[in-house]
């Protein structure tokens, strides 16, 4: 089991034995550029990655690397491995994952959403939403949004088609609901008046 805690711009991660609860190795300190949240993602090669995100950046660490930092040695567990596709996309020095250059807004939410072959990753920023392929980290689509009001919601709003709804405020008493036809195509936009 891995647990991460945040103090200021620093993340402390540590491993605990699932059997006895004892700590394995020492704490791992990671410097980030602000307060962080995280999400665990499994790639198609069954590689585990911990995604940390701050207002300005998305970071990716293979669980294998975090374990090696904690214990001071390479893991002999076959379940801990790196995904070659992800390693190509993650900066080897900073561990940052590149996002669309069309946005400089703050990251508000990071969600796993179903994809064609495994889970994809939705990055919701102040001014854009970007869907990353969960297997290659390639950008599938980017839409411009403004002032996202809440965490996007997945659901079957039409029979047998999984959609996502993104709600953003565009002015006084007006909001847009961004609803992709499906998670596999570009979004359509519906605008409506919000009741006062």
From TrEMBL:
Alphabetical keyword list: Membrane, Transmembrane, Transmembrane helix
Segments forming domain FAM234A/B beta-propeller: 2-178
Subcellular location: Membrane
InterPro entries registered for this protein in UniProt: Beta-prop_FAM234A_B, FAM234
Entry GO CC: cell surface; membrane
Bilayer topology: Single-pass membrane protein
Main location per the UniProt record: membrane
Protein name according to UniProt: FAM234A/B beta-propeller domain-containing protein
Origin organism lineage: Eukaryota, Metazoa, Chordata, Craniata, Vertebrata
